Amino acid sequence: MSRTAKRRQSYWRRILGQTFIRWGARLGLLWVGILALVGVFAPFLASSFPLLLSHEGVIRSPVLNYLQPVDVLFLVAFITLLLLYPWQITLLRKFLIMLSVLAVAALFAYLWVKPQQLVIYEQYRVADAAGEYDWVVYAPVPFSPKDYQRDRGDTGLEAPLSQQSRAHWFGTEQNGADVLSRMVHASRIALGIGFVATGIAMLLGIIIGGLMGYFSGVVDILGMRLVEIFEAVPTLFLLLTFVAFFGRSLYIMMVIIGITSWPGYARYVRAEFLRLRKQDFVQAAEAAGLPLPSILFRHMLPNGMGPVLVAASFGVASAILAEATLSFLGLGLVDDPSWGEMLNQAVQSSRFNWWMAAFPGGAIFLTVFAYNLIGESLRDAIDPYLSKSG
Amino acid sequence: MLLSVKQLHTWFQHQGRTIKAVDEVSFEIARGETFCLVGESGSGKSITALSIMQLLPKSNLKRHTGEIHFHAQDEAPVDLAGLSEAEMQQVRGGRIAMIFQEPMSSLNPVFTIGEQILEAVRLHFPELSEGEAWQRVLESLEAVQLPDPQTRVHSFPHQLSGGQRQRVMIAMAMACEPDLLIADEPTTALDVTVQREILRLMKTLQQRTSMAILFITHDFGVVCQIADRVGVMQRGKLVETGDTEQIIHRPGHSYTQALIAALPENLARNQPHEQRADQMPLIRLSRLEIHFPVRKGLLRRVVDQVRAVDGVDLEIPRGEILALVGESGSGKTTLGRGILRLTEPTAGRVAFDDTDITEMNRSQLRRFRRHMQIIFQDPISSLNPRLSIAAILTEAMKVHGIGENQEARIEIARDLLDQVQMEEDTLWRYPHEFSGGQRQRIGIARALSLNPSFIVCDEITSALDVSVQAEILRMLLDLRAKHGLTLLFITHNIGVVEYVSDRTAVMYQGKIVEQGRTEDIVNRPSNRYTQQLIAAVPRVPV
To answer: TM spans, by residue (chain B) (predicted)?
Structure first.
């Protein structure tokens, strides 16, 4: 029997297999996957700049000139992920490689990628209409999120597909920007805030909870008091305060959501470690004289991760909701579109424009729902009493 | 006949496979008789009981056929299989009562025991007044010899000991004067002395009320004490039925013969280890104490000490097997872990071949651990479910510098698996793919991987079936001889003690009350507690 064939039996593969046997989890994963792809390729999916054009026999790609460093970073991350996936190494190593690639890419992107400063959205459309180009390939949604049509006399607030010439699939908002394009670009914020905030919370929770659970005694007592203090902090109001003091920044939001939601994870990890500490295989590892890091990270942590992962998938959902709430209150990002902020726009306009509420609202609903579905299945898969393949 | 089961089939559907949990089982139970169903785990004993009670899970039931004729006193005979759910409820608890293995989880923790028995009484005797029903509750508690029933009737389940809870369960079952009592391993979770009392109680109650008992167990000792007739089950089939005496002494079926032969009482006796008086003992404990502080209040002040191990002096000669026996809570497991310093001793010394373990610091101790290992009771939790067997076996070797590289270590692991009679491809598999006995073998291989001279075996065969137990014990003795191991064998099974050990120490409330050669302890105990303990052990007459 070959080694790789047997590898497939490992615990996480079994758990993931069982999670995605369930239809809910598959649909959830599908939606999150679509969202991730849309987020990564947002500048190519929705942009006023043509993807390719031929000008006097020379083929150019104007969209590349306007790529932001962040766009490049997303692409690098995606490609690295694709390359790493089939590689047979441990998850931890993959994660570390991913992190280092991202760090290097971030450095180079911010040093070298200089997007064109002067942005004239109309430039290529006008030139195309004047017949300057041989042929032009536009993005599927040929409008950038901040391509405000009202500046050029359009009325804004067009219903979906109400005009023949410049078709807006999901309509436009009051400034005349395309709703679909704004949603495509906003999907990044939703995904980013969910993952980064939950990542920060998980890291803090695992470290603090692990220390409390393994050492117990005084460390545990102090840790629990810290947990209680942080649980008493109302995240939303702290966010409001920080926005008032330090202005609106996505990164501050991520950090605040992260450092106020770790206590839940810490409680889970602590409880798991207290339980595992008494398990025979941990005692056996200790009896074999294994060093402390090996006992903690090889024998205890992987066995205690189940409940944390379940909590994390719900945590991602609630982080997305927190950001949406903040943006809806008008305290989100200043310039960039986000789903919550779009809902806010829908409410503020004098007349109820259904397309401005239904599409972003639906996206928030589906995303939160998708994460909850995954979390639910993961919980069932980890619970040995509910396991589908006994 | 009170109960006659004919051609009972209970099949389950699981992942597209049909599992014949009960297959063509037929037997009869007469009024006032005790019928024992014995068999190893998974043989279908419990499912047979649940089939009679019509308590099977409906979701994956594939086939449930057969006749279950039940003829209660003063009533017309009925076929339980044909009854509606409402009619069956009248029979359940009223005519047939059932008690289970785990008395804690079968009682509801939020009601007093009196309220729980009262509920059962009122359900089946609705004509009784409040006072009469309550009177009946008290009578039933008296009948099961619960001390001081007037006050105990108001206690909650957690305030009672395991044996007392089982008495309450029996009282609840008996309150409605059933014709048949189904007891599913009722004494397995109890200590031997408590078990003896419960079995005695069941016999007394049976003589008084002439009810029949269907007793399910895996323990032939218990069978000999209580059964009139015995049925042996194997993989869903009832392979043999007969009188107790006949089954024990003249088993007809080959499977029954194998089961009886695998009992530790019947295994070929261990050759007594020749004494080498000149040698130093390998392990020497002097005045070892392990106390656990009881903390209370906001400041977690120490208000009391639990003296789990209370001043133990013990010597284990090199190359011998010392059995440590005692009831649950006597401190034997704590002592075993204290010797390895997995639990820190409070006071006293543990000398390992003249080296004082208690004085070592953390890193010295970690290096020293390769000389002493431990094997655990529970085969499920003793192996890390996330690691392959290869990783489990080689990890400790790597830390202690055994084997030059991973290939060499894998080679050693392969050899170890061969010694515990496991296949080579075990290496690349994960713990969940193995049965309890196989996991226990892997646990033994892991303990041997560091080539230790001393191993603590903590109840290593308690969770296993007798036939598997026999194989593991035989293998352990071979390995002992081959590697010159010294073993501390912690167990509560006197049969195993006799088979495996050279010397025995009896532990009671944290102290060693008696120690000596196993023969002497088992046949001529001098201490009063030891005498009680040995007398309570259900034995199969050889």
So the answer is: none
